[in-house]
Design brief:
By secondary structure, this protein is mainly alpha-helical. The chain is built from 6 helices and no strands.
């Protein structure tokens, strides 16, 4: 079109001057647009090389809006590399999110497991306390000591799930076992054949 205007016959000098001015302005505008377009593609390429995903995403959107057609091979490669880069970044983000989700689930499962173990330990503490109360007179001393030792371990596992009353009962049973050991020790020494210190 610019060629047709430049070679147009039968126009006056003033019109010819106006046509030449319009053509010069059009060429300048096209050069500025080409330079701006090249600058956007250069910025896009740089953002990809520097790993700036957010900037690359914005520039790719702009490139697709202003230069979706009639791209050079270099522009097509730049836009393709940017799209691949962003797809890769999205994949990495999804993978990181999946890992975080899996870690959170594992942490929650560990918390639930610990809570179950505490609850089971608490139930065993209560069962053992009932057994000791009901059968302490008929239970052998060795069995009582074994159950009190087990009770001590279970109480540590149940932790803050124990009521104050249960803690007091456990302490009472431990104190009772210690008293019985102390009274049993002098009797053993007094028996014939017992070892002397």
């Amino acid at each position: 079109m610019s060629h047709a205007l430049a070679t147009l016959d039968g126009v006056g000098q003033e019109t010819r001057t106006q046509i030449n001015t319009v053509l010069q302005d059009s060429k300048l505008w096209l050069q500025e647009q080409t330079a701006a377009r090249q600058e956007v593609f250069t910025q896009l390429s740089k953002a990809v090389v520097e790993g700036k995903a957010q900037e690359a995403r914005g520039l790719l959107t702009r490139v697709n809006a202003i230069a979706a057609h009639d791209r050079t091979d270099t522009e097509t490669q730049t836009a393709g590399a940017a799209a691949d880069f962003l797809a890769g970044m999205l994949g990495q983000q999804e993978e990181a999110a999946q890992k975080l989700h899996a870690a959170a689930e594992a942490k929650e499962e560990a918390r639930r497991k610990a809570a179950r173990q505490k609850t089971e330990a608490l139930q065993q503490v209560r069962t053992t306390l009932r057994t000791l109360r009901r059968h302490s007179r008929t239970m052998l001393g060795t069995e009582q000591r074994r159950r009190v030792a087990m009770l001590t371990d279970l109480a540590a596992e149940a932790g803050d799930q124990l009521s104050r009353s249960e803690v007091n009962q456990i302490e009472a049973w431990k104190a009772r076992m210690q008293r019985e050991r102390k009274t049993a020790a002098p009797e053993k020494r007094a028996q014939p054949g017992g070892r002397r210190r």
